[in-house]
Amino acid sequence: MTIETAQVLIGSGWRDALGDSTFRAFDPDTGEACGDAFPVATEAEIEDAVRAAVAAAPALAAAAPETVAAFLERYADGIEREAGAIIALAHRETALPSVPRLSDNELPRTVCQLRQAAVAARERSWTQPVIDTRNGLRSSLGPLCKPVVVFGPNNFPLAYNAIAGSDFACAIAARSPVIAKVHPCHPGTSRALAKIALQAARDTGLPDGSVQMLYQLDQDAGLALCGDARIGAIGFTGSRAAGLALKAAADRAGIPFFGELSAVNPVVLLPGALAARGDDLAEEFLGSCLAGSGQMCTNPGVVIVPQGAAGDAFVAAAGTRFAAAAPVVVLSEAVLAGLEQGVQTLVGAGARVVAGEARRVAPGFRFTPTLLDVSADVFLQAPRALQTEAFGPVSLIVRSGNEAATFAIVGELDGSLTGSIHADAAEADVAERLAARLRPRVGRLNFNRMPTGVIVSPAMNHGGPYPSSTAPGFSAVGMPGAIRRFAQLQCYDRAPDGWLPAELTDANPHRVWRVVDGVPSRAPL
C-alpha cells in the first residue's frame, strides 16, 4: 500500500512539505497506524508561516467585523455539510464514539462556538468600550495586529482543535491571523477541517495567511516559535510539562500565554447527601470519571468522602462499579504511559488501589478503570504528590474523619478548572463555608453536580487558578469573554474622531454597548 504524504497549509494555500520527517496517526482501538503520512514542519516552513501571518495581520486587523463574522459562519456551515466524513475521521483517529460524543455533542459544540464568535465579532461586544467625556479619554479592546499561535489538545478533535476550536474562533474574531499547531493524534481530521476553513477564508475575502496549519513540530522548533517576538499571543491546551516549557519560552519574549494545563477537579461529598442518595452519586461519579474514557479536562480526580456508614457504602458502591467496568480505549500510547506513571506516583505517596487493576489491556490502547483511596492524614502529608493528574479513567478517594479534616484537605488543593460540593438541605451552613474555602481554588464551582460538562455560554468559566490554567482571569470557553484573551487594550487621549474605532466614535454607528461616564449606553454622544 502506498502511503501519501500530506501537504501543509502555509501562506496562501496548500503546498508540498519541504522535509522528509513524517508521522502517522494510530487507530486507538487496534493500535495500528492509519491514514496518510503527515510532515513534521521544518524551520523554513515555520518561518514562512510566521512571515505570512505577520504580513496578514494589519489587513485582518483592519477588516470589517462583518467580514470576519461571515468567515466564521461560512466555516461553521461547511463543517455541518461535511459532518459525516469529519466524524468518521475523528472516530478512526481517536476511537471516541461517533454517537453520541462526536455527532451529538462535539461537532454541534464546535459550530456553536464558531457562530457565537461570529455574533460577538459582528456586534463588537468583546471590545468593551469606555468613554470618559470629562477627561477626554476613550478606550476599548482591539486587535493585537500580530499572529496568534494555537496548540490543540489530543482529547477534543473538533471542539478544541487548533484549526476549528474555541481558541481559533476567538483569535479570528479578534481579527488576528492564526497559526494552528494541531495535535498529532488526529491529523487527518485536522486536515479535513483546514480545507473547509481555507475555502471559507477565500470565499469571504480574508487576507492570505489568516489561516495556516502545522501538523507537528519538534521540541526545539516549538520553543522557538513560542519565543518569537513577532507572535502576539499563544493559546495552549495540553500537558503541564509541555505547557510550562512553552510558557517559559513565551515569557522570555514577553508574549501572553493562555494555557490550560491540568486539573484534579475536586468533589466534596457531605454525609447528608450520601445518606440520601449515595447509590445515585456512585453512579454519577462513575459516569463522570469515565466520560470520554476519563480524558476530560474536568474529570473528577479527587473525591473527598467522609468516614462512617454512608461514606463506606458510597466507596463500596463506587468500587463495585469501577471493578465491573470494561477497559476503556484511550487516545494514545503516551496516554497509557502517563496513566501508569500517574498511578505509580499516587501509590508511592500512600494511596492504595481499591478497585480495578490499573493496567493496560490489549488490543489497542486500553486501560482498566481504577479507583484508589487514601486517608486524610496521609493526604495531608503529601498533598502535591497525591494530586498528580492521572489523565484517564482513574480517581482518588480521600477519606475524611471529620469536618475539620475536610476543611484541611480543601485548604491543600491545587488550582482546578472546576470543583463540586454535594450536600442536602440540612447541610447548607457547612456547604456554604466549604464553598467559600473552595471558591479561590477553582474556576467553576458546582453544587450537587459532577464536574464534567462544559456549556458554551457567555457565563461559563473554563479556566482557573494554576496549574489548571496560566491566566486565571480568563476563560477558554464562552463568547465574548474568551475573545478578550487575544486582544489589547487601546486608549485614546483627546484623539480626533477619525482616529477612533467605530465603537468609540461619538456617533457609535453600530450601537455597541459602552460605558459612558460610568453609565452603560448605546446612544450616540
Task: Please explain how this structure is put together.
This protein is of the alpha/beta class and 525 residues long. It has two domains: 45-123 and 139-261, Aldehyde Dehydrogenase, Chain A, domain 1; 267-447, Aldehyde Dehydrogenase, Chain A, domain 2. Helix content is 38%, strand content 20%. It contains 14 helices and 24 strands. It has a seven-stranded mixed sheet, sandwiched between helices. The protein has a five-stranded mixed sheet with strand order 22-6-5-23-24, with no helix packed on it. Strands 9-8-7-10-11 form a five-stranded parallel sheet, with helices on both faces. The model has no long low-confidence stretch (mean pLDDT 97).
By oligomeric state, this entry counts as single chain
- Runs in which pLDDT lies below 50 for 5 or more consecutive residues are none
Number of domains: 2
Helix content: 25-40%
Task: Tell me the Rg in angstroms.
Answer: 24 Å
Q: Give the strand line-up of the largest sheet.
A: 15-18-19-13-12-20-21
Q: Find the CATH superfamily of the largest domain.
A: Aldehyde Dehydrogenase, Chain A, domain 1
Average pLDDT for all residues? 97
The major β-sheet equals: 7 strands, mixed
- Strand residue percentage: 15-25%
Which structural class is indicated by helix and strand composition? alpha/beta
Shape: globular
Give the termini distance in whole angstroms: 69 Å
**CATH topology heading of the largest domain:** Aldehyde Dehydrogenase, Chain A, domain 1
- Give the CATH class of the largest domain: Alpha Beta
CATH architecture of the largest domain: 3-Layer(aba) Sandwich
- The number of distinct helices, counting runs of at least 4 residues, comes to 14
Query: Can you count the beta strands?
Result: 24
